[in-house]
Amino acid sequence: MPTAGGSAGAVENLLPLALSRPHDAIASARTVLARDPLAIDASIAHQAWGISLRQLGDIPAAVRELRTALRLAEQSGRSEREADVLATLGATLGRAGRSREGLARLDRAVELSRGALTGRVLVRRADVLLVLGRHREALDDLRLAIARLRRSGDQVWEARSRNYRGFIQLALGGTKRADADFAVAEKLYAATGQEFEYAEARQNRGLVAYSRGDLPSALRYLDEAGRRFAAVGVVWPDLAIDRCGVLLAAGLSAEALAEMDQAIAQMEAEGGTATKRGELWFAAATAALAAGDPQAAQDRADRARRLFSAQHREWWSVRSSMVQLEARYQAGERGEPLLRRVSAAARRLDALGASEASAAHLLAGRLALAGGRSRTADRELELAGQHSKDTPPMARSAAWLGKALRAEARADVRGMLSACGRGLDALDEHRLTMGATELRALATGQGAELAELALRDALRRDDPRRLLVWGERWRATALGVPPVRPSDDEQLGADLAALRDVVRRLDASPDPSLEKERRRLEKAVRDRALRAQGGALGSAASRFDVDALVDALGETVLVELIEVDGVLHAVVVRDGRITRHEVGPMASAAVEVERSRFRLRWLAHGRGARGQVQRGPSLDVLGERLGGAILGSAVERLGDRAVVMVPPSRLQALPWGLMPALAERPVNVVPSAATWLRARRLRPPADRRVVLVLGPGLSAGRAEVMRLAEKYPDATVLANGDATAEKVLRELDGAWIAHIAAHGTFRADSPLFSSLRLDDGPLTVYDFERLRRAPYRMVLSSCDSGLAKPVGADELLGLSSSLIPLGAAGILASVVPVNDPATAPLMLALHDNLQAGQSLATAFAGAQTEARGDPVTVAAARSFVALGA
Asked: Is 317-480 in CATH node 1.10.8?
C-alpha cells in the first residue's frame, strides 16, 4: 500500500530523505536540532523525524514529533509550512485509526495551501480516504493533485500521487491503468533517488502481476521489494500482506499462514499503526481459512473486524465479516440465518465494489441450494457467475463454477458441462503461467469441484466413456508439460551443489549451524523454482482422445480408477469397449493399501526369514483383499492381457504386484491415460548409451552394479567416488537405459527434495528437472523411489513422477523399502529380459518368476512398480 510523506524542504533535503532512508533522516534531524535552528528549520527537522518514525512503525512517537513540528510551524508564521505539517499529521493520524481527526487536519491543510502544495496535501488526504475504503473520493483528490504537481515539475510528489492512484485503480479492478501509473511512479522515484518508495513501486508492480494471475512474476517483484526495503532498514508489513495473497493464490496456504503469524508477532513486539494491525489480522484470517482452520479464521477475522469498526473502515469491516461467515460455513454450519447474513454481506460488498462480492454470492448460492431455496439460489449464482473479459483466470474459473452450479440446479446438463469445461480451461491458462511443477500441481486443486460436477453427471447417465473423459480432464495435468527451468541456471546449480555438501556433512556429524544452512539453501532452491515463468499458452497438452487411446492399447487392457463422492469406480477399456465397475468405498481401499505396505516393510527388514513365526495374514491373503478393494468385479475383464493401471493420486503408493490378478503379468502404472499415451509415443534415443550408478553405503548394490557392468561392457559406470551429481546428470541426459543403485529418501514435507544419495550428497528432484531429457528407461533399485505426494486435485509430486514430463518412457521404482540383497537377483533378471528386447513392464513381470519361494525375495519383487509405458 502507498505511503504519505512531507514536502520538499530547505534543511538538507530532510523530508525526501525521511521516506528514502528513515534512519539517516533521524540522524540528520538530530544534527539540525542540536544547532538551535530557527523555528521554520526546527519544524522541518521535527516533521522529518516524525515521518521517519512512522515509516519505522513507532506511531505514538511519530505523532509527538509532528505535533511539535506543527507548533513550530505556527510560530514561524508561514502558512505553507503549517499546511504541510498539518497534512503529514493528518495522514499519520488517519493511518493510526484516528481518521476523523486526521481528515479534519487535512481539510484545514487544503484551505491553507496553494499551487503545488495543494497537490501534496491532496495526496495525503487521498491516503486517508484510501484507508477508509472511500476509493472514488480518493481518486477525485488524486486527479487534481497530479495535474497541479505535473505543472509545477514536482517529480517526487507526482510519483507519490500516481502510486496512490495505481493502488486504487488496482483495488477497483483496473489492472492496466494501475500498472501504467506504477510504471511512471517507478521511473520518477528512480530519477529522484527515492529508494524506499522505489521499493514500494516494485512491490505494487508485483500486485498487478498477482491480479493478472502471473504468480511467478508477482513473487519476483515482491522478493526484490523485500531486498530493497531491507537495504534501507525498513520492515514493511504491507509486503507480508501482499506475499500472503500471492502464496494463497499459489495454493501455498501453510506458508501464507506462517508468513502472517511472523508479521503479526513482529508488529506486536515492535509496534505499528492500528490500521496496519487490522489489515495483518485480516490477511491472517484469510490464510487460516485457506489452510482449513475455520476456528482460527473466525478468531482472527473477528479481531480485524473490531479494529476496522473502531476505525470507521466499512470496506475492510465488511470483508472481515465475510471471512467469518465463510469460516462458519467451512466448520459445517448451514441454515437460513447464515444464508441471510451471507446474502446481506454480498450486497454490501457489491455496493463497496469489493472483489470478494462474487465469492460471497457463490457461498450464498450454495447455502440456498442446501436449504431448498431454488429461486434465491438462482439469483445468487447468477451474480456469482458474472465476470468481464479482463477478469484473471482464477476469478473466471470461480465465476464459471457459479454458472455450472446454477445450470445444474436448473437441470441444464449441457449448460453445466459447458461451464465446467470453460472453468477448467481458465485454470489451464492460470496453470500454464507457472513454470514450477509444484505450483502447477497445486493449482489443479481449484478445479476439483468443476471436475466432480461433470463426473457425477457421467455416473447418473451410467456413461463410462464420459466418465473416462472427465476423469482425464483434470488428472495429472501438471505432468503434461515439463517444468520450465533453464538447465544452465548457474545460481540454481550452485545452490544445489552447496546443499549437497551441507547434507553430506550433516550426515557425517549433526550440527545446528549446518542444519540452519540446509534450511536456508532449501528455501533458496525452492524459491528460485517457484519463480520460474511458464511457457506459452499454446504449449498446453492436447485434449484427451479416447479413440486414440483405444487404437494405442491394442491387446492391452486399461483400468482407470476414479473416485466420486468417496466411492471408487473402475473404468475398463478393452478391445474398444468401455465398461464401468463400482468397486467400493475409497476408505476401504486405502486401509488395504496400508496393510499391504506394512507387511512388505516388515518383510524387507528380514523379519519374514525362514524359521520365524509369521503373525497376521499372509501375503497371499493380503493380496486377495487388496485386489477386491481396488479392482472389484473389474478383474473379470482383464483376462491374461497386459494391463495399464491408472490410479487416483491417493492410491499411487500401491504394491500392484501383490494382487493375484496382476502378479507376474506386464503392468504399467501411470498417473493418467494421457500420460501413458505420451510416454508410448516416445522413441528411444539413437545412441543406446547405458549408465550404471552406484551410490555410497550400499554393499549389496555393489555386486549388483558390477554384475550389470559385465552384461553391458560398453556402459558408463559411476561408482567409488565418481557418482557425483554433475557427472551423473551429464551421463543420464538422453541415455537409453539408466540403472541407479542408491539409497533413496522420500520427503513428504517437501516432495521435490526427495532424493537419491550420491557420493557428494543427495540428488534431488530439482536436480533431475535440470535434465534436457530424462533417460528413456530408468531403474531405481532403492527404497521408496516410487513414492510421491498427492497434491492439488489429482496430482503427484515425487522423484519418479518428476521424470515423466522430462521424457522417461518407463521407470521401475519401489513404493516401500526393499531388502537390498533380495533385490539384486531381481534386477539381474530384469536386465536379461531388457537385453532380449522386452518392454520394461514385460521384463519386470518375467523377472518376478525368479522371486518364488523365499518370502523376503517375494516381498522385494512385489514392492516394485513399472511406471510409464
From this structure: no
